[in-house]
UniProtKB/TrEMBL annotation:
This is AAA family ATPase. It is a peripheral membrane protein. It comes from the Bacteria. Residues 2-251 form the ABC transporter domain. Keywords: ATP-binding, Cell membrane, Ion transport, Iron, Iron transport, Membrane, Nucleotide-binding, Transport. Transmembrane segments: none annotated.
Length: 257
């Protein structure tokens, strides 16, 4: 199911000479419709993909995995100018930026350490005190979700563990370059997870540079061309053609470097 049907921005109300509203992708946006359960945004760095995704996630009140809050002044400014149209608004899902992942792991470690220390302190005062229960429940919930901890796994494995634990039916998942910590094989694993969740009425909006993720079956691909989002086919994407040409003839590229 497509939960989020479209995003609109009132061009008459935005300060067109102010960043991020002066980004071509924002100036030319108007409206963005989502027709399929998986939408792939493709474009070079600096084109505004991440800013747009964060503003959409913030407007939709999505949970931010890895960060403390949507505190970017830029995304908040843009968020307030967006109108989201829903088929059925979902409270499930999250917004994820790959560069927040280490922060998320470290925060989980801190929560576990703080909970264990609180339990020790309480038991020293009173070994039978029920005050330990909230902290014990926190540790139990984290172990149920993440086993012994994401920090004990490789970066790619812990990343997939997080997704396995947090993906649930009927969710909206907004992902900014989720391929960053993943090997090509692990990216295929992520695609497998996504396919399963699509069958459970989930919607994904993903910005990526990965030709592997771009190949998600039946995804709608929107490519930023001349500052505008345009529908594209997989085989015509520069990321795909350049990667294919390089793999077929690497010497042609490397000899000029």
């Amino acid at each position: 199911m497509v939960h989020l049907k479209s995003v609109h921005i009132n061009q008459d109300r935005i300060p067109v000479n102010e960043y991020p509203f002066n980004l071509p992708i924002i100036k030319n946006l108007g409206s963005l419709a989502f027709h399929k359960q998986v939408t792939i945004l493709v474009g070079d760095n600096g084109t505004g993909k991440s800013t747009l995704l964060e503003a959409i996630a913030s407007n939709s009140e999505s949970i931010l995995i890895g960060g403390e809050a949507f505190d970017s002044e830029l995304s908040v400014k843009l968020r307030d100018q967006l109108k989201l149209v829903w088929r059925i608004k979902t409270r499930k899902g999250f917004f994820f930026r790959a560069n927040d992942f280490n922060h998320f792991i470290n925060r989980l470690k801190d929560i576990k350490a703080e909970s264990r220390q609180a339990i020790r302190d309480i038991k020293e005062r009173d070994s039978n005190s029920l005050e330990v229960m909230p902290y014990a429940r926190t540790l139990s919930d984290l172990e149920r979700l993440y086993g012994q901890g994401l920090e004990v796994r490789s970066h790619g494995e812990s990343f997939l563990d997080l997704f396995q634990a947090r993906l649930q039916p009927d969710g909206l998942y907004i992902l900014d370059e989720p391929e960053a910590p993943l090997s090509p094989l692990k990216q295929l694993t992520l695609i497998s997870m996504m396919k399963e969740m699509v069958q459970n009425n989930c919607q994904f909006i993903i910005a990526t540079h990965s030709p592997i993720l771009m190949a998600f079956p039946d995804a709608e691909i929107l490519s930023i061309q001349d500052g505008m989002l345009q529908q594209a086919t997989y085989d015509e994407l520069e990321h795909v053609t350049l990667t294919r040409d390089f793999l077929n003839h690497p010497e042609r590229f490397l000899r000029h470097l």
